[in-house]
């Protein structure tokens, strides 16, 4: 479908719970203050001190055996209230959920509880990739269909893309898009085994980077064919376009050529020239291969044009895996709503192979076009273009 023939798609509401706090105001305030220091998580398969982890900020949640459904309902309630969808509008609202681990955290929680009662018990729970979207649809009485995405770290970014395209094409009026990732041993130990976890901090694009820091978050975004109420009087952000590709050359390694390709396709889908982009939100995991490939792709895309300012949000949020598409979008827009783009507080020295430096200080920001990039295991790459100007 040509860009000119599509319906407009607005970011109408959002809700979030993450390492920076509960809700957009807490999140933007924490970013302005430089974020929060991650806590330590032990690893059951090593005698080492474990690794830093960006767990939920709320003191009521830390260390508690809260169900992921509590966090999910909290974020969706916020998003629906922010969007002010009527009962009639909710009846035309579909649910799109992106997650890497889905409900594994809840599975582990219940299994630990059962082991305290019977040390020989075997898990016999009903689990699956569709349970989170189904729960939200039923709990909030939403009338559309439900869709689930499990494409590694691009999961909720792809959920956003597909939801926006369905609204643009007139299939749905509104969509609730979820990004869900809660601490679970399976993910944490897997990244630990691959030696991808930093022992101290996430330093995207820095010469001294030594791995990523994982984090947990639940975010919900309401997309709509109508902008809804503008509580702050500002221009609402619109989804201008985007693209998803899958490079099957490697299970875990990123490829610069494939990343550049998805960026070019996203710009073409949005009908934009690369020079129109005001800011790039990089994936920026702080791992050696991802940052090198992403840096090379940005250099190639802007080989004969000025590269826009770019940043990474993982030093603030941790890498929230399949949730980062939704969670980083909410965080970035919350900060922009407060008048700034967060710099990368952990960046100190240029990498001679990458030769690119992200924002070090916060950047004043108002209207503009944003490119949000996400890259995952298996070579799944996604890029989304947002704008809030006329």
Verbal overview:
The chain is α/β, with parallel strands linked by helices. It has one domain: Peroxisomal Thiolase, Chain A, domain 1, CATH 3.40.47.10. It is built from eleven helices and 16 strands. The chain has helices at residues 24-32, 68-83, 87-90, 104-117, 131-139, 155-168, 185-193, 256-270, 288-301, 314-317, 324-337, and strands at 10-18, 21-22, 39-41, 51-54, 93-98, 146-149, 174-181, 214-215, 217-224, 238-246, 279-281, 310-311, 340-341, 363-364, 369-375, 380-387. The strands form four sheets. The protein has a six-stranded mixed sheet, sandwiched between helices. It has a five-stranded mixed sheet with strand order 10-16-15-11-12, with helices on both faces. Helix 2 (68-83) packs across helix 5 (131-139).
Rg estimate, integer Å: 20 Å
Unreliable residue stretches: none
Order of helices and strands: EEHEEHHEHHEHEHEEEHEHEHHEEEE
CATH class identity: Alpha Beta
Count of alpha/pi helices: 11
Query: Which range best describes the helical content: under 10%, 10-25%, 25-40%, 40-55%, 55-70% or over 70%?
Result: 25-40%
Strand order of the biggest β-sheet: 2-1-9-7-5-6
Distance between the termini: 21 Å
Please name the CATH architecture.
Answer: 3-Layer(aba) Sandwich
Please name the CATH topology.
Peroxisomal Thiolase, Chain A, domain 1
| Gross geometry | globular
Largest sheet: 6 strands, mixed
CATH homologous superfamily caption: Thiolase/Chalcone synthase
Overall domain count: 1
């Amino acid at each position: 479908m040509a860009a000119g023939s599509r319906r407009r798609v607005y970011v109408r509401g959002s809700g979030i719970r993450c390492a920076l706090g509960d809700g957009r105001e807490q999140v933007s305030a924490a970013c302005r203050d430089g974020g929060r220091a991650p806590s330590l998580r032990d690893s059951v398969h090593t005698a080492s001190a474990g690794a830093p982890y960006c767990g939920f900020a709320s003191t009521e949640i830390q260390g508690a055996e809260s169900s992921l459904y509590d966090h999910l309902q909290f974020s969706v309630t916020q998003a629906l209230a922010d969007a002010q969808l009527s009962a009639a509008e909710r009846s035309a609202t579909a649910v799109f959920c992106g997650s890497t681990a889905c409900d594994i955290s809840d599975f582990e929680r219940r299994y630990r509880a059962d082991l305290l009662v019977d040390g020989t018990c075997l898990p016999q729970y009903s689990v699956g990739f569709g349970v989170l979207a189904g729960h939200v649809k039923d709990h909030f009485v939403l009338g559309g269909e439900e869709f689930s995405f499990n494409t590694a770290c691009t999961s909720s970014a792809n959920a956003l893309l597909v939801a926006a395209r369905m609204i643009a094409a007139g299939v749905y009026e509104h969509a609730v898009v979820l990004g869900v990732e809660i601490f679970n041993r399976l993910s944490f130990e897997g990244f630990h085994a691959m030696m991808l976890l930093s022992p101290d901090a996430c330093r995207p694009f820095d010469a001294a980077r030594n791995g990523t820091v994982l984090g947990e978050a639940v975010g919900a975004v309401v997309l709509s064919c109508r902008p809804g109420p503008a509580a702050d009087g500002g221009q609402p952000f619109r989804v201008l376009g985007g693209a998803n590709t899958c490079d099957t050359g490697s299970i875990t390694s990123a490829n610069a050529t494939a990343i550049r390709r998805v960026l070019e396709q996203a710009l073409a889908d949005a009908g934009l020239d690369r020079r129109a982009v005001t800011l790039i939100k990089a994936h920026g995991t702080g791992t050696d291969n991802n940052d090198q490939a992403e840096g090379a792709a940005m250099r190639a895309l802007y080989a004969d044009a000025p590269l826009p300012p770019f940043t990474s949000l993982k030093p603030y949020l941790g890498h929230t895996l399949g949730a980062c598409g939704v969670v980083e979008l909410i965080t970035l827009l919350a900060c922009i709503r407060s008048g700034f783009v967060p710099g990368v507080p952990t960046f100190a020295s240029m990498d001679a192979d990458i030769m690119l430096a992200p924002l070090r200080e916060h950047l004043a920001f108002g209207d503009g076009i944003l490119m949000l990039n996400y890259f995952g295991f298996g070579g799944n790459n996604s890029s989304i273009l947002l704008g809030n100007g006329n």
